[in-house]
Amino acid sequence: MREQRDLVIPCAGAGLPATLTLPSGELVGLIVTLHPASDGSRDQPLMAHLASVAPSLGVAVLRYDRRSQEEGRGVPFDLQLDDLHHALAIAGSECGGVPVGLWGFSQGAWIAVMAASERAFFGLVLIGFSAVSPAEQMRFGTAEQLRRAGYGEDVEAELGRLRGAWEAFQRGQLARDELQASIDRVAAEPWFELSWVPREAPDQATWRDMDFDATPFMERLACPVLALYGERDEWVPVEECVRRWHALPAAAALVEVGVFADAPHDLASPSDPDLPDPRYERALIDWLMRRAPAALD
Predict the structure, then answer these.
(1) Quick one: 189 exposed, middle or buried, by C-beta within 10 A (0-12, 13-18, 19+)?
(2) Strand order in the sheet with 255-260
(3) Residue 45 confidence (pLDDT)
(4) How many CB atoms lie within 10 A of CB 232?
């Protein structure tokens, strides 16, 4: 039987509910999970799946709820990183000195790479990690939504102009009324909701991390990395991300990249979207069996 402990992680201005799942036998390692932008719950399906399989290998899993975010604003990356530091402190007090790894999905993979560039971990598991900036990733993702919905190049060009105005406003290069005018021109179009631009322009910039560059953090990684992607990822430019991984000097020794044919961003099973792809589970377990015990050597 696995043991579960309910915890609270004290952070700056917040107490984050958490669940620590421990193996019934020997504890050889611990993994802390990090959230996608779309789901800040510790019960996010891939996180819950990790907590169901890792303890059987002697690896505990700490999951916590991301702090609340204001409407239309994400939680800034530096604040998420600070919250992770508090989570790691709690993990250390609960699990002693066992080796610690990080697991991050989508946005959470950015936070994991940031953290691993500044301290040692036994490894990182990254799902749908975008090696391009959030702004570039969203340009790709929204255009892909249009293509999959059957829209042509003319609509994609309109989307590009709208996203360009949105980004310019966020960078302080475009006035609010000019952004609102760009929105008003296309807001009645049936594709507008796929643009991920709000109907009403905010009063001020809301996207602090839009030009975040992961490359310097990737270059400083000194631990093993398992980076997994779905070939049909609807939000991340997989080919470009894989190219950037392979371009790292340490890639051959540290980085394992897997791309699953016909799989989406969240690596859902083709037979049941509520379950992870079995290929992901096999790759995850294989990597943990090779990497987590080795961290004790």
Answers:
(1) middle
(2) 3-11, 14-22, 59-64, 29-34, 100-105, 124-127, 225-230, 255-260
(3) 94
(4) 14
pLDDT at 73 over 70: yes
Report the DSSP beta bridge partners of residue 9: 16
Model confidence at 72: pLDDT above 70: no
Q: Which residue is it, tokens 């959030």?
A: 134
Q: What is the DSSP letter of 65?
A: P
Counting beta carbons within 10 angstroms of the beta carbon of residue 125, is it exposed (0 to 12), middle (13 to 18) or buried (19 or more)? buried
Residue 52 has phi, psi (to 5 degrees) of: -85, -20
* Other C-beta atoms lying within 10 Å of the C-beta of residue 38: 12
Distance CA 7, CA 22 (A): 13
pLDDT surpassing 90 at residue 165: yes
Task: Give the E-state strand segments of 118-161 in sequence order.
Answer: 124-127
- Helix count (H) and strand count (E) of the chain? 10, 8
Q: What is the pLDDT of residues 107-161, one digit of tens each?
A: 999 999 999 998 889 999 999 999 999 999 999 999 999 999 999 999 999 999 9
Per-residue pLDDT at 296 exceeds 80: no
